[in-house]
Automatic annotation (TrEMBL):
Alphabetized UniProt keyword annotations: Membrane, Transmembrane, Transmembrane helix
Single GO cellular component term: membrane
Domain of life: Eukaryota
InterPro entries from the UniProt entry: DDB_G0292058-like
Name of this chain's protein: Uncharacterized protein
Transmembrane annotation, as ranges: 12-33, 113-137, 149-171, 261-283, 290-313, 485-507
């Protein structure tokens, strides 16, 4: 009978902690299988350019109502089950404005979300079972359990170390990922500002050309009207590019700052809970420990959710990097990448090129005519060089001077007039005022000529192609690596906490049982010596 009674005491004290610990292990293994199953396809296709495989063949081009084709970006990579479409395969490519894209990429983070829900449900069931046991099966604690505390303590130290490593991975990863994203945003905004400044400079040069007046030569009224109309479009294009890029950057920066703060708080709070839980369980602070268990249980669900979110973000950024690569190879196609960095309207850039060339030709032809008909007739200015046409070199006359050096060629023909009068003492010499007008005209032509390569790049969206190429080559790989650090760190935190919570309980219960058993032995010794049981004072700390 004694053995049966002994078994009845050990059975309820050992079984719950062991069973709950094993259930946690099964739950973590279930989550691992779900993570491996859901994200395997996305990870296998990540950064295939590193292996020299460019998967541009077989891309689907859908013809729209206009003459520009629509390119389905990252089509192979984004083929995932779509929960909003009965889990059919999503095939519309990278599109951040498509809810089905977000649903399909969100499915890759489902393991974290499922584990969070399962962990909360498991905790609720456990709480109900404990409440039932306390209310219906309450009985006085009996101290025959003599299980060792060393092995759970060593295991707790190991798992606490794993969770601490996860905290540092999250903290370090979020810092580096934030710096990488901020650097990328600064680069995009800087390139956008450069384009805006060049557009505004081109508009200012064209406006300045309207004021050319050399010996009654000016641009035609029709040309001035076209320049005014073009300037309206150029300023609108510059404002649109600047505003859209700045708004996108501000929105992303706002989210990044909030995410960074949240991850710092998560890493710090979880690290603090680890230390407090270890101390409370070892020192036997039962009430505080169970309060900590309740808080930690909820936070573990939150870290699993964050883990799923970071898996999702890792796939979104990977999709974006692949989309940039594919668009660079097909820049004429219409895509949704304009949400990141838009190209300037093609019609506007074409008109800017046309008017820039036309203004250059009209100004250069007019100035050369003035030199030929009015200035090269005088004895002192005979042989005044004409300006070469950089747009049509085959039509240049022998002896012409390049527009960037023609001012130096004209300088010897300027009269040396030290007085206030603008007249020259010798007839036929260039007056300082006339030289200034010619020099200003040549400067306008030269600056317009310098703006043509920029406008050509703008028409081909070359600056956007260069930005996307630089982002893909210099930023994508590092960014994905640091995001991976974070969701691995979150998985370590969550998995470590799932076990440490039960180890806190196991260590606390075994400590209480050892304390009870030791007190019972001391009371028995005092009774054997003839002392009252109440005189036996149990030690304050059980070892």
């Amino acid at each position: 009978m004694g053995k049966v009674g002994e078994l009845s005491i050990r059975f309820p004290t050992l079984r719950p902690s062991v069973i709950l610990f094993l259930l946690s292990l099964l739950l973590l293994n279930f989550g691992y299988l779900r993570v491996s199953d859901a994200s395997l396809a996305a990870k296998n296709s990540e950064f295939e350019e590193e292996r020299g495989i460019l998967r541009h063949q077989g891309r689907t081009l859908l013809q729209s109502n206009i003459s520009v084709s629509f390119l389905v970006l990252a089509q192979d990579r984004t083929e995932r089950p779509d929960p909003l479409d009965h889990f059919n395969t999503y095939r519309e490519g990278w599109d951040v404005r498509n809810e089905h894209y977000w649903a399909s990429v969100g499915y890759t983070g489902a393991p974290g979300f499922i584990l969070a829900g399962a962990w909360l449900a498991f905790g609720l069931v456990t709480l109900l079972v404990l409440c039932f046991c306390c209310c219906c099966c309450s009985r006085q604690l009996k101290g025959s359990h003599q299980g060792g505390i060393l092995f759970p303590l060593v295991l707790l130290l190991i798992l606490t170390g794993v969770a601490v490593v996860g905290c540092f991975l999250v903290y370090d990863g979020q810092g580096k990922a934030h710096d990488q994203l901020s650097s990328t945003l600064d680069y995009v905004v800087g390139e956008s500002k450069t384009v805006v400044v060049k557009l505004q400079n081109t508009s200012a040069i064209l406006t300045e050309s309207e004021s050319i007046d050399v010996l009654r030569f000016t641009l035609s009224d029709s040309r001035k009207t076209k320049i005014k109309n073009l300037n309206v479009q150029l300023n609108a294009a510059a404002n649109t590019l600047e505003t859209q890029t700045k708004d996108n950057a501000d929105n992303i920066s706002f989210v990044l700052d909030k995410v960074r703060l949240a991850m710092i708080v998560v890493a710090g709070v979880m690290l603090l809970l680890l230390l407090l839980g270890f101390l409370f369980s070892v020192l036997g602070m039962t009430a505080l420990m169970y309060l900590l268990v309740f808080v930690a249980w909820i936070l573990v669900a939150g870290t699993w959710i964050l883990c799923g979110v970071y898996i999702l973000l890792n796939n979104v950024i990977g999709d974006t990097c692949v989309s940039m690569e594919e668009w660079v190879a097909n820049p004429s196609a219409k895509t949704n990448l304009a949400d990141i960095l838009p190209c300037v309207d093609v019609n506007t850039t074409d008109r800017a090129l046309e008017q820039t060339r036309a203004t250059m030709n009209e100004t250069l032809t007019g100035i050369n005519s003035v030199i030929t008909s009015n200035l090269n007739n005088g004895s002192q200015t005979k042989g005044l060089p004409l300006m070469c046409n950089p747009l049509e070199p085959s039509l240049n006359v022998p002896g012409c001077a390049d527009v960037d050096r023609v001012s130096q060629k004209w300088l010897p023909y300027v009269c040396n007039n030290s007085g206030a009068s603008q007249a020259c003492p010798l007839a036929g010499r260039l007056t300082p005022q006339l030289y200034g007008q010619l020099n200003s005209s040549a400067s306008i032509i030269n600056r317009l000529n310098d703006s043509i390569p920029f406008l050509l790049d703008l028409a081909n969206c070359q600056f956007v192609r260069q930005v996307f190429t630089d982002i893909r080559v210099q930023h994508c790989h590092s960014l994905l690596k640091y995001l991976k650090w974070q969701y691995i760190g979150l998985a370590l935190i969550s998995g470590g906490f799932m076990f440490t919570i039960w180890l806190w309980i196991v260590i606390n219960r075994r400590r209480k049982h050892r304390f009870f058993h030791h007190s019972k032995e001391m009371n028995a010794q005092f009774i054997a010596r003839g002392a009252s049981p109440h005189e036996a004072v149990p030690p304050k700390h059980a070892t």
